[in-house]
Amino acid sequence: MVQIATGLWFDYSKPSVLAPTLTLSVSAGYLAVSGLTLLVTLAGASFWNITAFLLHHWKTKETTTNVIDLQHRVILRNSTGALRTIVEILKVHQAWSKKPRQCLLLKTCTVAVPALLVAAGFAVAGLFTSAVANKTYGPVAARIQPSSCGYWSFDATTEGTASMTAKIVNDTIQARNYAASFYANSSSSPARPVFIRTTLPYTTTGSAPCPIPAAERCILGPNRAFRATSELLDSHNMFGINAPVRDRVQLQLSLTCSPVRAIDLAAVINGSESLTVHYFLGPVGDQSSYTYRYNSAMANNTGLGYSLASYHAVANDPTLTDTLGWRPIPDFARADADISVHFMNQNDLRYLGPVYDPWFSADGTLNYTFNGLFLTRPDYLVTIMACADEYRLCNPSTSQCTQTAGVWALTENALTKNVLNFNVDQLATAARIVVALADVNTGMTVSSLGPAALWANNKLIRGNISPALPDNQWQIEVVGWFQTELAKIQASITEFASNAAELNPYGTISLQGAQRLRAVEGSAMHLEAPPTNTNRKRKSTEAVPATNSVEEAATGKPAKRLKIIPTGSKEAKAALKTAAISLLDVSSIVNLNPDEPAPVYETCDTVRRKTRAMLAKNGVIQVDFLRAIATPAYGDNNTNKIQASSLYSFMKQKGRLAGNTSDVYYVAYVFFEKLRIKQGKSKLKDREIMEEIYPGGLDIKVQLGKSSHVVGVHLKERPGVAYTYS
Prior knowledge:
Transmembrane segments: 30-55, 104-128
Keywords: Membrane, Transmembrane, Transmembrane helix
Largest sheet: 8 strands, antiparallel
Number of strands: 25
Low-confidence stretches: 511-567, 706-726
Distance between the termini: 54 Å
Radius of gyration: 37 Å
Number of helices: 16
Strand content: 15-25%
Region (Disordered): 528-553
Structural class: alpha+beta
Domain DUF7726: 599-681
Protein name: DUF7726 domain-containing protein
Helix content: 25-40%
Shape: extended
C-alpha cells in the first residue's frame, strides 16, 4: 500500500497564492483544526480591541460633544468585547430614546454596527474553520511518500527473469481488474481509486485505416478498422506528476485493430486423428519458421473454451535479433507502429445462438441440437486479430508533438534526439512515461492475461458454453484491451514514486523522485485555502516537483546540463552494452600452458556467488555471459557452447562441491580467474589455503557432491585450453 507524505508542499493545480498545501495525519489534522478555532477566537477579540481603540480615538476628535458621546467614549475605553459593547451601547440608546436628541440613532450605529460586524464575522469564521481541511473522503490530492522512488529492474539470472515475468503478469491482471471496476463498469464501484483521475479520457471510431500494410487482409475492408485514441494526457492533470506548466509533457496513445484473413499463409498437416495448422506470419526467434501452430484435437470434445496466443513486434527495435522476438513478414510489418497479432481459438465452444461477429464467427452453419438446445459451433478453428499501437509525446509549452510511432522511435525522438526541446524536468517526466510504455502494449497485455483478456470469457457456462454474442464483440474486446493499457500506465507512473512493487531478492529499484495520489480514507487531512470555485475538477494523484535529473537524485549535487542521456534510451543501452562487453572480455590474458587444463581451486558455491554477482551487473545479459565464459576455457576455435539449461542446473544446486562435474563450473572458474588477473586483484586467503591443501586442484571428473573429502588431480583428458596463474 502506498504511503502518504505529510508536511508542506505546493499543489501546482492551483494559482500560486493558493498552491501551498499542508498534509497532516488525521489525528494531527483534528488538533490543527481545533487550534485554528482557538486562534480565530483570539484573533476576533484582538481585532475588536483595535477597532474599539480606533472608534474611541475618532470620537475624541469631534469638535462638539454631548453626554451621549462621552458615555460612548467610556464604553469603548472599558470594552471587554464586541458583544458586551453592543449591549452597553443599546442601553444608552434606550435611556435617551424618550428624550428628543438629534442624531441619537446615528451615534448609536457608529459604535454598534462595527461591533456587530466584528462579532458576526469572527463567529462565522470560527464555524467555518474546518473548511480549510479536506478529509480523504472528499476530492483530495495527496503526495506520495518519496522514500524509495525509481525504476524497478531484475537481474539477468533465470530466477530474475522469472520474477520479472511474474511481476508484469501480476501488474496486467491488476490493471484488468481496475479497468473492469472503473472503466467498463458504468455504475459506481465500492472501491475507491487512488489515481488522480479515476479514468483517462479516450474516443473510439469504427472507420480507421487497416492497421497492417496489406490492407486487403482486413476482413471488413481497408477503412473499417476500430481505433481507440486517448486525449492528450497531461502529465500533471492526468498522471499526477506535480509540476508547473512549463515542466509538463503530454502523451497520446492509440490502438487500432481489425480481424484479418491469413488463409494463404497457413499450411495444414493432416494427421491420423486430427490436423495441425501452421501460420507463417513471420518467424518467432530461432525456434521455427512459423508464427503459430494449432492442433484441431483441442476442438474434439475437450470441453475447452477460448484460448489466445499473442505475438508482438516493436518497430525499428535494433535489439531484435534472429534468436529473439517475432519478425513479421512485410504484409504485417510497420515502421511507424508496434504490431501485434492475436490468434484466437474457440476450441470446443458452443453458442446458444448464432454469432455474426467477424472474429467470433459462428453463423449457425455448424449446428446441432442437444437435449432440446440449439447449439452453434464456431466457423473457424483459428481467427486472427491484428493491432497497431501508436504513441506520441507533446510539449505543451511549444505546442509541438512528435510523429506518431512505436515506443522505440518515440524514445529515440523525444529523449535521445529531444526533437521537442524539452527542458531538464520535462525530459525526466518524459522518461518516466516512456519507461511505463515499455510494458504497456497490446501484445503484452493479451499474452499476460490469456483467455481472461476476453470479456466474452466471463460469459462462459461450464467452461465451453456461451450465450450469443453481439455483432461488435470484437470491438468490445479491443476497448477492454485499451482500457487495461490506460489503467496499467496509470499504475506504473504512480508505482514509480510509491515503491509499491513487490520485488523479491532478484529485483531492485533505482532511486529517483516523488508523486501525488488520491488519499485513502482515514489516512490524511489537508489544510489549504478554501476553494473559490466549487465546480473545480476532482484531483487525486500528483507529485512534488521531480528532481532535475537522475544525477541530482543519485548524488544530491547539481547535474551537468551539457547532455542528458535518459535511462532506457538507445544511447544509455548502448553504453551499458559496451561496458558489459568490455567487462566480459578476458582475451588479453595469455594462455601460458595450452596443452593442459587449468587446476580448479575454488568451491562450487564460490563460483555460483561470483556468477550471480556478474549477472546482476547492468548491461550483462545471460547470453553474453555464457559466450564469454566458454571461450577462455575451450579456446577461440572451439565450437562447444554452454547452454542456459546447464547454467540453471548448476546454479540451483547448493553445497561447496555440488556441481563439480558441471561444464559451467569449470569454464566459469577459468573465466573468473582470468578476470581476476586482468583486474590485477590478488588471490583471496581462502584460495591460497585451497592451493596448499589441493595442489593439483579439485577433481572435476568424479562427482564429489556427497563425498567427505576432495581429491586433487589434473584432468589430462579434459579437452580445452588452460593457462598458468600469476
